[in-house]
Structures are given as structure tokens and as C-alpha cells.
């Protein structure tokens, strides 16, 4: 059974990648529930919240380089095939993991230490059950930095906002959010 997600049919709001990926996970839960266990939400960040990604649509340079504070992608890993769904990339949708690794992630070996990335890999069902954001991270001095999505914020039974816990790349077992934090090398090994 293959997963089919069409970019133009996805719920998308610029600069709200965590919610965009939550909606992709929800789409899979509703339309391909037997594949949900093969799907992951992946937060990319680091201690400095300076993570470079290439081939990004919002970039002004020919390489598509953007330094995000964090970014979130969706991964489907089934039948020995791994695809990345990134609504903010110029690359195909989906894009094979190996192509995404080469053209969007690059290698930490060529980066200064402050730009090394960590990856919180969260099973999609756990992400759907635990993620919450009241969107206050996008408000500064009482004004929106980027316009919010038109649909209501995503809450769960126990939280109205735990976004920063997902972005935090310290892998504490007592942390309130699920997922395993991997360095770049181990992330590539897991999905290549």
C-alpha cells in the first residue's frame, strides 16, 4: 500500500511548519490509517536555534539557503522506501530521503559547530496526541510576526502550548513530549 499526499491539497500556512505537519499526520490518520505507524514528524533544531536548510522556497539566494530557528518535516518510511514531505522546499513532494539529505540537509561536517542540527523523530500517532500550540511564539509586541492559520489552534487534553518542548533537543526521558533526538549522522543512518 502506498501513501499518496498531494502538495496542493495539504493544509498550509507559511512559517507554521509544525502545524502543517500535524495536518499531514492527521490526513494520514483519516485516509490511510494502516500506514500511520510508518509515518513520523521530525523537528530539526539545535541549542542556538540556528539550523541551515537548502532548497527552501523562502530563500533569496540561488542555493535556497535559509537559517531557521527550527523546521518540521514529515517522513513516510515503508516498504524499504523513505520519502520526505516538506511543504517549504523547492524539491519534489514527496522527495526521496536520499535526495532531501543531499540537497536540503547537506552535512554537518562542513558546518560550523553552532549550525549542527539535531532531529527529534516522533511517531505520527504520538505527535497527533501530544502536540499543542497557542501560536504565541509568533506574537511580538502584541503583533503577529506572520499571519496565523485561519483554523483554530491545535490543543490536546493536557496542554495548550508545548511547542518549545518539541524544539528543545535535550533528550530527557522525563520530558513532556515524545520522540527520540538524533544527531545528523544517526538521523541519516536511521532513514537512508
Automatic annotation (TrEMBL):
<protein>
    <recommendedName>
        <fullName>Protein N-terminal glutamine amidohydrolase</fullName>
        <ecNumber>3.5.1.122</ecNumber>
    </recommendedName>
</protein>
<dbReference type="InterPro" id="IPR037132">
    <property type="entry name" value="N_Gln_amidohydro_ab_roll_sf"/>
</dbReference>
<keyword id="KW-0378">Hydrolase</keyword>
<dbReference type="InterPro" id="IPR023128">
    <property type="entry name" value="Prot_N_Gln_amidohydro_ab_roll"/>
</dbReference>
<comment type="similarity">
    <text>Belongs to the NTAQ1 family.</text>
</comment>
<feature type="domain" description="Protein N-terminal glutamine amidohydrolase alpha beta roll">
    <location>
        <begin position="12"/>
        <end position="190"/>
    </location>
</feature>
<dbReference type="Pfam" id="PF09764">
    <property type="entry name" value="Nt_Gln_amidase"/>
</dbReference>
<comment type="function">
    <text>Mediates the side-chain deamidation of N-terminal glutamine residues to glutamate, an important step in N-end rule pathway of protein degradation. Conversion of the resulting N-terminal glutamine to glutamate renders the protein susceptible to arginylation, polyubiquitination and degradation as specified by the N-end rule. Does not act on substrates with internal or C-terminal glutamine and does not act on non-glutamine residues in any position.</text>
</comment>
<dbReference type="InterPro" id="IPR039733">
    <property type="entry name" value="NTAQ1"/>
</dbReference>
<comment type="subunit">
    <text>Monomer.</text>
</comment>
Amino acid at each position: 500500500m502506498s501513501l499518496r499526499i498531494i502538495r496542493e491539497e495539504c493544509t498550509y500556512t507559511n512559517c507554521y511548519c509544525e502545524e502543517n505537519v500535524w495536518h499531514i499526520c492527521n490526513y494520514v490518520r483519516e485516509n490511510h490509517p494502516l500506514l500511520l505507524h510508518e509515518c513520523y514528524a521530525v523537528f530539526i533544531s539545535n541549542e542556538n536555534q540556528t539550523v541551515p536548510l537548502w532548497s527552501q522556497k523562502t530563500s533569496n539566494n540561488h542555493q535556497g539557503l535559509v537559517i531557521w530557528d527550527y523546521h518540521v518535516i514529515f517522513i513516510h518510511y515503508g516498504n524499504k522506501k523513505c520519502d520526505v514531505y516538506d511543504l517549504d522546499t523547492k524539491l519534489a513532494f514527496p522527495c526521496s530521503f536520499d535526495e532531501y539529505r543531499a540537497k536540503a540537509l547537506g552535512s554537518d561536517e562542513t558546518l560550523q559547530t553552532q549550525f549542527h542540527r539535531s532531529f527529534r523523530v516522533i511517531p505520527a500517532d504520538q505527535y497527533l496526541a501530544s502536540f499543542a500550540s497557542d501560536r504565541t511564539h509568533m506574537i511580538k509586541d502584541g503583533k503577529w510576526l506572520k499571519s496565523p492559520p485561519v483554523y483554530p489552534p491545535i490543543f490536546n487534553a493536557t496542554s495548550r502550548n508545548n511547542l518549545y518542548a518539541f524544539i528543545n533537543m535535550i533528550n530527557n526521558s522525563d520530558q513532556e513530549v515524545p520522540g527520540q533526538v538524533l544527531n545528523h549522522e544517526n538521523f541519516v543512518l536511521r532513514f537512508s
